[in-house]
Amino acid sequence: MAWFMPREENFFELFERAAENANLAAGELLELLEKFDDVRARSKRIKDIEHAGDKITHDTIERLNRTFITPMDREDIHELICRLDDIADSVDTTAHRMVLYRIEKPTEDCKKLAACLHHATGVLVEAMPLLRDMKNTAKLRERVIAVHEQENQADQVLSHAIAGLFQNEPDAREIIKWKDVYQEIETATDRCEDVANILDAIMMKNA
């Protein structure tokens, strides 16, 4: 079933822009951790990306409020755009805490978590255009599964990272700092999985 509704097509465009924005934020975080120079300036760039995501979310909800006929359930539109926005929010929180906690050097586990997140958001960028036509269900489901795989991998990295903290870090303050940072990045991957779950629900409703 093709979802050809010219007046409502912009919802799909907004989903695509939100996914691209989340991926951009995740990419900036990964680059921050890999290069770890000009951390404050890089954190500011992430904040600007997060603000851009807020604007996309606001525009989507505003459009939803004034639109009578929508291409999918209204609650799905709202949940999808909000969860996409949550990804950039968590990335921004992570970068802010790196500055706030005066992190001197990123850990390899932190980089691995950020890589999982960047990969997951990249898959979401691929997934969003497929929503325009439910003939793309098979391809969309492949992306949903790929996001779940990245989230599972991030869970494993998080468990290893926290175990390593308690085994190898003698300073309780450093444990608190890094546990917070690790969990915030993993929260962002959880929000990617939330998006995947919403996509799965949309496919089921329109099968």
Write the SSE topology:
Layout: H1 10-35, H2 39-66, H3 74-100, H4 108-127, H5 137-168, H6 172-205
Helix pairs in contact: 1-2, 1-3, 1-4, 2-3, 3-6, 4-5, 4-6, 5-6
Secondary structural class? mainly alpha
- CATH class equals Mainly Alpha
* Overall residue-averaged pLDDT value: 92
Main beta sheet, described?
none
The global form is globular
Q: State the share of residues found in helices, binned by percent.
A: over 70%
What is the rounded distance between the termini?
Answer: 9 Å
Describe this entry's structure for a reader.
With 207 residues, the protein is an all-alpha fold. It has a single domain (6-205), classed as Up-down Bundle (Methane Monooxygenase Hydroxylase, Chain G, domain 1), CATH 1.20.58.220. The chain contains 6 helices and no strands. The protein has helices spanning 10-35, 39-66, 74-100, 108-127, 137-168, 172-205. The longest helix is centred in the last third of the chain and has 34 residues, at 172-205. The chain is globular and about 60 Å long. The model is unreliable at 1-8 (pLDDT under 50).
